Amino acid sequence: MTSFSLSRLVNQLSQENLLTEQETEALRARGLELAPEEQQALADQPAPKTSVQDTSPWYINVLIGFSAWLSSVFMIAFLLAVRLLSFREKFTFFVAGIAFLGIGVAIYQVQRGRPSVFLNQMALALTMTGRILSVIGAALVAKDPTQTALYVVVMEVILIVLYAEKLQRFLSTFLIHGAILFILSHNNLVPLVYSYIALLSLLLYGLWVYEFRLPTSQLQELLGPIGYGTAVALLTVMAFSTTPATRAFLRVELWWPITAVMAVAWLLSCLSIAHQYRVGLTSPLGLFTMLTLAVFCASAYQAPGITAACFVLTLAYHRDERLMAGIAILGMVGFVVIYYYGLRITLLQKSMAMLIPGLVLLLARGALLGLSRSHATSTASAAHAS
Predict the structure, then answer these.
(1) What is the SS3 assignment for 332?
(2) Does the first or last residue of the chain, that is N or C, have fewer Cβ atoms within 10 Å of its Cβ?
(3) Residue 373's pLDDT band (cuts 50, 70, 90)
(4) Residue 276 to residue 16: CA distance in whole angstroms
(5) Is the confidence at residue 124, as pLDDT, over 90?
(6) Torsion angle, CA of 13/17/23/28, rounded to 10 degrees?
(7) Cα–Cα distances in Å, from 63 out to 77, 92, 120, 159, 303?
(8) What domain range includes position 347?
(9) What burial class does residue 272 get, using C-beta atoms within 10 Å of its C-beta: 0-12 exposed, 13-18 middle, 19+ buried?
(10) Is 41 domain-assigned?
């Protein structure tokens, strides 16, 4: 299995002109199979601890998450019906929530070595219930939205450390970003709202472009769900730019600076990807790509959601993350539809506004494909000559 994977990797790198003929022949001459003692050492290594949820397809994880939320709703309804919880005794919500969280995390840690579908889903349902109850209790006791949001941040950070499930870490990351933005907007800290959105885009850039350079697989397993949560959080924040009512929620009036930040993050991602594929910035392909990005972002300066969706889609396509690519495409389609119906112009003008950019993008795609082929040919010729 290892020999086949390495052979395919070398062939793919050679086809994409990322390895010269001399480098390819040297790797093949050196041998791609592991030595017998290395194979035995690899076989003797203990298998990593994985849960049932970590090995399931993404749509199964979505259904598991939905079932956990549904179970928590029924559990809370039962506790209220039998009067084990009462809004008159506000502190009981918080105590019950902490208890459910502790039991759920304990069950997860116990079954982690020997994964069990039943125990895994029970732990997930209990932690979901504890999350909801403790947040309600914190809101009832503190009576301060800022303090409640701070509690959410602390609770989710602890869950990221103690509960190493992909779905759980994705949800925790999403809630942390949402709680921090709520704190900033609720206290009318508009400059910090801008700064945090910029931090989100740069964090997403770093996570998705440089994650493979991390030294250990544990860090990659940790940052993978965090990258997904950050990407979904960024697209969700961009949804607040679509209507005046949602814009008022974040206290952000001018969205073009956010579009500029998204454009910079998108440009950095493209530069990093181009560097990995040995495409120089001064080459025809590099110059045309940067010019196309600049024109696109300038024309969409009032639509940061479209730029953010393109940014996420570029990262997802580069990392071959089909789920994230699908989320980015859905977000892009949604933003285009919302902005289209929000234009206060005639139907003919709307049609032209969609037709002309579409034709320009198709022409730009054709030009990029032609430049890409010529760049690949010139790279291969240069490698062959050397």
Answers:
(1) helix
(2) N
(3) confident
(4) 11
(5) no
(6) 40
(7) 21, 30, 14, 21, 32
(8) 188-372
(9) middle
(10) no
